[in-house]
Amino acid sequence: MAISLYDISVRSYLQILNSTSAVLAKGREYCEAEGIDLAEVVETRLRDDMLPFRFQVVSTAHHSLGAIEGCKAGEFSPPPASDGMNYASLAGLIGDAAEKLSALSEDEVNALEGGDMVFRLGNNAIPFRNEGFIQSFSLPNFYFHATTTYDILRHLGAPLGKRDFLGQMRVNM
User: What is the mean pLDDT of each run of 10 residues along the chain (173 residues)?
Assistant: First the structure.
């Protein structure tokens, strides 16, 4: 059985977006119970040279829904600035991305296979086929930012484990 573009993208995005939504909820509950200011969480970094929590969450949404939108448009760029976003708006962004991806049909996404797209960063342009972009750029970035989101909350003490990150796996029953 061949794997489709929908399978490698939307199904994978939804698994981790839904788990990230649950991780954010669990993180919020923990922080509120422990008196940790959510405004400080939004600005938390694992290292000084890393971007803050808010960027990690925005990038998780951007490298999922934004990647599919980029495949449709033929162009993808880094996410917009996330200054001023609070914890609730970040959680909403993840939920919105999952909702919009859930509304896409398999045929709609699979029709993007073979399409050309360009990743633009300033004056630089990297050409891709949509499936190469998803597999070699979008998915690695998506998992990186979702993992970093999880890691920051875990670093702050939120009671999270690997099962929280994995979410609902697609197992044979």
Answer: 89 96 97 97 95 96 97 94 90 97 97 96 95 96 97 96 86 68
**Using CB atoms within 10 A of its CB, is residue 7 exposed (0-12), middle (13-18) or buried (19+)?**
middle
Count CB-CB contacts under 10 A for residue 24: 26
Q: Which of 152, 161, 134 is nearest to 56 (CA)?
A: 152
Give the 3-state secondary structure of residue 48: coil
The domains of the chain are located at 5-166
Strands, E assignment, 59-102: 75-76
Distance CA 130, CA 39 (A): 37
Question: What top-level class would CATH report for the domain 5-166?
Answer: mainly alpha
φ/ψ (deg, to 5) at 118: -125, 130
Please state the pTM of the whole predicted model: 0.94
Q: Which residues of 31-59 are buried (b: 16+ CB within 10 A; e: fewer)?
A: beeeebeeeebbebeeeeeeebbbbbbbb
